[in-house]
Amino acid sequence: MMPAIEHPVLVPIILLSLCTGILAIGTLLYLYIYYYSKKKLHLSVVIIGIISTMTTGNEIAVIVFGLIGMSELGMQFHRLQALSITLYLFALPFILHQVLELNRRLKRVNRVVYITGAVLACILIAIAYGAPDIFLSFTVRAGTVMTPWNIGRASPGPVYRIRDMMIFALGIYSIALIIVDLRMTGRYRYINFILAGMTVGILSGLTDMILAFRESETGLYSIRVFSVFNLGMTIFTILSMISIMKIFIDHENTAKSSMKNEYLELLAGGIAHDFNNILTGILGNATLALESYQRDDQTREMLTGIEKAAIRARDLTQQLLSFSRGGILFRDIVSLPSMIRETVDFILSGSDIKAHYRFSRDLWNVDVDVNQIGQVIQNLVINAKEAMPHKGELAISMENYVITNDSPALAAGNYLKICFRDSGTGIPEEHLRRIFEPYFSTKEKGNGLGLAISMSIVKKHGGYIEATSREGDGACITVYLPATLKSVRDKRKASTSPYRFHGRVLLMDDEEMVLEIAAKMLKQLGFAVVCVARGEDAVEHYRQSITSGEPFDLVITDLTIKGGMGGRETVEIIKTINPSATVVVTTGYSQDLIVTDYEKFGFDGAIIKPFTVEDVSREIERVLNAPR
């Protein structure tokens, strides 16, 4: 029986797991970017990300295998972790070679350094397996104190300590190289994050060395649980990713506006899909853990925090899709006054800016995508807040507005007119005509996408945004949204009590993580689940179920399958076998037309990734109870 994990170890394991997850997601992002760019700059980030992920991941393995009494296996992972850190001898100077604008002489010197680092790493790897006792001994135990989290660690030998000194010297060399680059180019915008990360990495390494010295008599990791250096290099890697992303964005800013928009549109859809698959595992596991974890303690608070963070990340993927080509609107009839009040009050809370509302009576409703229009409102209020850094007033008015003749911006019809007027410094005339252009920003830390995305969203809805201002007299942003005379739909929440379903479900997805978490959710809801990875297998299992007299009550298929038949082809064949089959599609491409018009393609429902148990339960209940 596995021993219970002690509380002092639980928090470090969760912390290291979060670090590993963040690093893995960042590495996947840059791997995606490198796939298209083929630039060594992005490859260097991928290499650093892989090494850091391996380092933190192996650290978790060492602790866990020590806790469950598999010390020999833990030592194997300790060796892998030590060798992962060794790879920094090559990776650190290699990433600096791609980021820094060194002169020819320094370039030659640094090339020698990272090639030498690669050779030394290979030598240390050979020693670690050829003569392990002088690197990490599995037989000699250092010290007298054995804890559940250090029995899975091998005893460091002299080569291990030499490795530490080489990495420390490399860190000092890297900082010196960065300082030289800053004095030569002054590119603080890009390099300051890497410099800060290197400083944190060196300080964390020194901390580890000091702790190791204090532990020399009692035993390795007797007064701590894990290597502080892991956190330091995680911070360095994340800051490096941010810095490289700044370089990436600025390089894109030199291209033509149309090319930049096209690239962002393609990138947004792909990244959102990959992130949605990853977030499905994070969000799904968090919600399942909360369902089964009844104790009200710090662990539950952490799980709730993970769930909230994943939901916010899910909203971020929707924002990425807001600017993508052919994005689909999930329209709903909405009354805007309450939503605007809540958004404005939330953003202005804690500031010295007062909000004033003037809403006409009997306002029309709008048929809009709530999340996207909410994003527009947030962008406009944040811009107004930044225009009044000390204090001020924001007046929001809303009225029904009728356009009788077509104009270049708007077609004739009924609109809701919303005005956001601030008392800030105003917008200079030369900037006013450019504020909706992508990447145009007068703010030092602005990216110039907020108003551009807002304009894109409003135009997709058939509306328009315009700005008026006089310098020194504030600015007014006016939004026109097509109005409707329809009433707001009744949104009574469907019951989501667990374990109320029964029957057999055929589940298809080529992502193992998504398949696993979706199967757990369905089983928790009471279903018996059969999992397959390809459309061809789904069709075969469904055909066999009909032959055996035990047909599936529900089929859930992923829309896209790499190298195999996807959901669209699968549903056609299944409906041919059994026209009354109930089939639901899942996808991370929430902008796909199939999501909103799934019935046209033969599906009976749609579930958007990432999803929670409640999302799955609600859609299944709707589909199974729908009239046939």
> What class, by secondary structure content?
alpha/beta
Q: Percent of residues in beta strands?
A: 5-15%
Number of helices: 19
Number-wise, the strands total 14
User: The CATH topology of the largest domain is what?
Assistant: Rhopdopsin 7-helix transmembrane proteins
The N- and C-terminal alpha carbons lie at a distance of 50 Å
The total tally of domains equals 3
Q: Work out the radius of gyration.
A: 29 Å
Helix content: 55-70%
CATH class of the largest domain: Mainly Alpha
Shape: globular
CATH architecture of the largest domain: Up-down Bundle
Mean pLDDT: 80
Sheet with most strands: 7 strands, mixed
Show unreliable segments: 1-6, 254-258, 492-497
Task: Describe the SSE topology.
Elements: H1 7-37, H2 40-67, H3 71-86, H4 88-99, H5 104-130, E1 136-137, E2 155-156, H6 158-185, H7 188-214, H8 228-252, H9 257-292, H10 298-322, E3 331-334, H11 336-348, E4 353-359, E5 365-369, H12 370-386, E6 392-403, E7 413-422, H13 429-432, H14 450-460, E8 464-469, E9 475-484, E10 504-508, H15 512-524, E11 528-532, H16 535-548, E12 554-558, H17 567-577, E13 583-587, H18 593-596, E14 605-608, H19 613-625
Helix pairs in contact: 1-2, 1-8, 1-9, 2-3, 2-4, 2-8, 4-5, 4-6, 6-7, 7-8, 9-10, 9-15, 11-12, 12-14, 16-17
